[in-house]
Amino acid sequence: MDKPLKPSEHAEKKLIAAIMEKKYKPGDHLPGERELAEQLNITRPTLRETLKHLSAQGWLTIQQGKPTRINDYLKDGGLGLLGAMVRNGKTLSKEMILNLMEIRVVLFPGITEIAVAKAPDELIKKLVKAKDLDNRAKSFADFDWELQLLIVNLTENPVFRMILNDFSPLFETLAYHYFQHEESRKHSSGYYDMLLNSIDKQDNDEMNLNLSESAIIVKEAMKHAMEFWKLNY
């Protein structure tokens, strides 16, 4: 069960949603403190706390003696904003979801190469279990997320894990829809099998070739998921 939000967290979520839904556009000014506090049903001290937090994330700029201004977060925002956007996934546009999925298409094949080079046996041990998955959406979604977590952890690069953590809420939503389809589960079964075969090579002379092959397999699987989302949602 989700933990109830504090008043400041609830207000922050509402303001982020309003910005992402373009109720407040870049360059717009927020209403005055009294009016905005009443709209959000919070006290003025709580509003100040909320605005300071949003300012630190890059959503807006607090100007002494002037109205608070909305920033152009798509141009000037950083990774901190990315996590906040994903946590507010219900307000993400289809275009933004595809942009986020494209990041995965670009980054994850290279991350997989590092994991395969460092710990191929661990990946093989995990991928073998895919053969025993029952044909349910939740089983596939859970396995796929566990596989992604394993891959980033095997790289021993904590930044990769931090990036993946930011994607977690979005993945839960996308995976639920994606794996509801029989075709998607079949495609993923084939992906796990191909990835297993590409890693399970004994000849060390072929290692560099195997790494590239694994990256290509991962990239194609993630492009397939992206194309599926384009066509179905």
List keywords for this structure.
Arc Repressor Mutant, subunit A; 233 residues; mainly alpha; single chain; Four Helix Bundle (Hemerythrin (Met), subunit A)
Count of helical regions: 11
Kindly provide the name of the CATH class of the largest domain: Mainly Alpha
The value of Rg in angstroms is 21 Å
Based on the structure given, which CATH architecture of the largest domain is correct?
Up-down Bundle
Q: How many individual domains?
A: 2
Shape: elongated
Distance between the termini: 28 Å
Helix content: over 70%
Which series of helices and strands comes N to C?
A: HHHEEHHHHHHHH
Strand order of the largest sheet: 1-2
The counted number of beta strands is: 2
Largest sheet, if any? 2 strands, antiparallel
Strand content range? under 5%
Calculate the mean pLDDT score and round it: 89
Protein name: Regulatory protein GntR HTH
Keywords: DNA-binding, Transcription, Transcription regulation
Organism: Desulfamplus magnetovallimortis
GO molecular function: DNA binding; DNA-binding transcription factor activity; fatty-acyl-CoA binding
